[in-house]
């Protein structure tokens, strides 16, 4: 037996996988074979920042062990520049290389194309805003269930 709550959980997971497939098609279309779709999303999310691997993990985008491996591969393939922190020699910081910036810009162009294609469909800006609001509520609810700080308490959702 399914419920709207469970269906939403399944849909969130499925949509994430579909988007990664869309991103893989874009990489293939561009002939990019030295980075995978998950790594390219990490790259996109780094953007113009200069971050530690720990900061990527804390932001909640990725699991720690996967981030370390993926960052290592992106450094090896020239998408990221890795440097020791000036202030803390134990800490390693990463930022996009020129190659990484070019791929990040290509992904941004893809996202812009997708947004333009949404024009005239039922996926209006208002509907997407409402969806984002609902997804943020679910995120806060789940955070409250795990006891993460800054989240609303479960009773705030009753």
From TrEMBL:
Keywords: DNA-binding, Transcription, Transcription regulation. SMART domains: HTH_MARR. The keyword DNA-binding applies. Residues 5-143 form the HTH marR-type domain. Pfam families: MarR_2. The keyword Transcription applies. SUPFAM superfamilies: Winged helix' DNA-binding domain (SSF46785). Coiled coil: none annotated. One of its GO terms (molecular function) is DNA-binding transcription factor activity. It comes from the Bacteria. This is MarR family protein. It comes from Micavibrio aeruginosavorus (strain ARL-13).
